[in-house]
Amino acid sequence: MAVSGFEGFEKRLELHFFGDDPIIFQLGLRKIVFESIQQVLEAVQCTVVSAVGNSYFDAYVLSESSLFVYPTKIIIKTCGTTQLLKSILPLIHYANQIGLTLCSCRYTRGSFIFPKAQPFPHTSFNDEVTFLEDTIPSNLCHRKASIMPSKSSSHSWHVFTAHSSITHQNHSHNHSDSDIFTMEICMTELDPILARKFFRRPGDGKTGDSAGKEMTELTGINEINPNAFICDFAFDPCGYSMNGMDNDWYSTIHVTPEDGFSYASFECVGSVNDNIVHVLRKVVQIFRPGTMSISTSSSDYSNEMLKKMVNAVEPLGLKCRSRAVDRFPASETVVFQTFTARRRSV
Ligand SMILES: C[S@+](CC[C@H](N)C(=O)[O-])C[C@H]1O[C@@H](n2cnc3c(N)ncnc32)[C@H](O)[C@@H]1O
């Protein structure tokens, strides 16, 4: 099939490492030199657009989405026709060089809009799982792959996790582990008027950074978490990416605004006690999607949290259509919820 548009849906990989030397935890993976990061990204087929760091982690905006490097954790998220899983071996190699060993791997993605345009190993979830099984070291022996369904066969959540037997606690958050969740939101059929805000004016004379900053303010993205330091970038002629840094919390947004295959994603680490309602409402108001999925991953979940999410989103014209819950090794629970605009049929 001919490629008819840009694939907005990201592939996301999260790798955790451990080491015996406590000094490693101070910088850890952040000691990997920039040239090595570039080599990893070469295998994936994307490049660094900008990079910033605070005292907790480094955040990179990529030509196709984002990379976050913590002392013992890496999150890499790439869209388009990138070959994300090819980053695993080089990342393990560079981590080993600084005395760190892989102890968990988590791969997630939604359903591609243009699945036939994906190169190996992203040609199917089966191919991805086979590649993961063959690539990750045998000490990650607790493994599970699952396709979590929704009411629509074209929207599923693909999850693969693998953990070693020993649990390694390297968290620096001030919250208890059971409160923390990762939330991945995928949105399609964006409101065309709102999506226009992610197009540049021809010959605007701006840099990608200054045009990005303008989009962050014009769209209200800066109001999602006013405490976050934002690193943003506007592509030419359209498209937008940002990383937010708030102490050790990251957030990230990516937008493909083109009509016919419009897509936006929002991701953050949150706590049950944080202002999740405000965040969700802002995200929906910025994009007004026709369809939206919210996937949360945490060591546990409460019906109260899910109710909070639905109550935040439904008054804005979206209706919750499906919910799937699945448990993974090392007591990780994933909840996949889908919503569609009330004006549209399921
Ligand atoms: C990298 S961004 C955001 C990706 C994100 N996964 C998403 O779709 O929301 C993709 C958008 O930027 C546009 N774009 C323009 N120049 C690009 C480039 N050099 N590399 C990648 N995307 C580019 C694409 O057409 C698309 O609208």
From TrEMBL:
Entry's cofactor comment: Binds 1 pyruvoyl group covalently per subunit.
Entry keywords, A to Z: Autocatalytic cleavage, Decarboxylase, Lyase, Polyamine biosynthesis, Pyruvate, S-adenosyl-L-methionine, Schiff base, Spermidine biosynthesis, Zymogen
Residues reported to bind substrate: F6, E64, F235, E258
Cofactor(s) required for function per UniProt: pyruvate
Feature type site, description Cleavage (non-hydrolytic): E64, S65
EC numbers for this chain: 4.1.1.50
InterPro entries: AdoMetDC-like, S-AdoMet_decarboxylase_euk, S-AdoMet_deCO2ase_core, S-AdoMet_deCO2ase_CS
Protein name: S-adenosylmethionine decarboxylase proenzyme
Lineage: Eukaryota, Viridiplantae, Streptophyta, Embryophyta, Tracheophyta
